[in-house]
Amino acid sequence: MRVDETPTGGPASTKSAPNHTAAPATNWIDLARVCAMGAVVLVHAFSPLVSTTHAELGSQAWWGAHIIDSALRWCVPVFVMMSGGLLLRPRENEDAATFYRKRWAKIGIPLVVWTAAYLAWEWWRDGLGAEGALEAASAGTPSIHLYFLYVIAGLYLLTPFLRTVVAYTSRTGLWWFAGLTLGIGAADQLFALVDGVGGSTAATQFLPFLGYYLLGWLLMTSDPGPRALRYGGLMFTAGVAGIVLGAWAAARAAGEWGTGAEYMYDFLSPPMVLASVGAFLLLRSAGLKLAAIGGPAAHGIGRVVGVLSGLSFGVYLVHVMVLNTLRDLGGTPDGGAAFFAACGYAAATAVVSIAVVAVMQRIPYLRSTV
After folding, report:
1. What's the whole-model pTM score?
2. pLDDT given at position 1
3. Is residue 288 part of a domain?
4. What percent of the chain has pLDDT over 90?
5. H or E element that contains 313
């Protein structure tokens, strides 16, 4: 999703001192955006099977959807980490007012427009009333995916001040800061399992993701060598395995897909943090290798990836409307057929969403919303 700017400059800085402001290498970001966007579409296509709406707990269809979903849930944390990695580098020539003016065009307008669009769509599709619409907007969840806009908007509000922290804090201190904020967010989600405890609003949606935002800067400016690739692979494998087995154990113990299983899918459950960090490191390694490959074929792939990356933010915004419209028209079978239906809906949603966004980006006024 192109809701941030890509700085240019030399290789990542690995110094352990304050004022570490060198621009990190970012020529891998386009591939990571495209992969994360594809993961988002697949997660939303398979989630009704995982929650047992269209598949029985423990069936082959459920296991297939559960493994795919577990292996792709890193998508939103990776988007947040990429934004932090790109935006937290201190910039002497950009004060808070300048930063906010730039960000409003990129996130403020889409937030307002798509909040209204999805609330109107839910009114037309499901009869959402005025009170329900107000509650959804106040909670920062006018649709199942638009919370991300509220998360990013909140993080942007703090970015000019976080840049000062980054400029004058050692890397060791920043690792502690990121770890503590991730830990607080994880504890908040854990306590929310207790009935009647927790809950967020449009103004606080971003707080649990602050640790990921800081972590993005630290990871993006770390050594991208072979050791990072090995660590990424180990963390991703361990994290996904933890999600798969942990959610299954919780669901089996409860006899249904419930709160305990959902917690394993939360963005700040321990295995999800591991999987997300691992995915970030793996995507960076893959993207850097792709960028280093020469020849016409690699150049052509790079151009396609660049185009898709430019469409990814818009695809994120429209894909839920496209996916649910396709489901409304085609229906969703139960059992084993539901798995193949989800595959088809994911592919169709991606193609239709890309086409819709490509057209919208060519239309004055509409292009500022995607």
Report:
1. 0.91
2. 59
3. yes
4. 68
5. helix 296-330
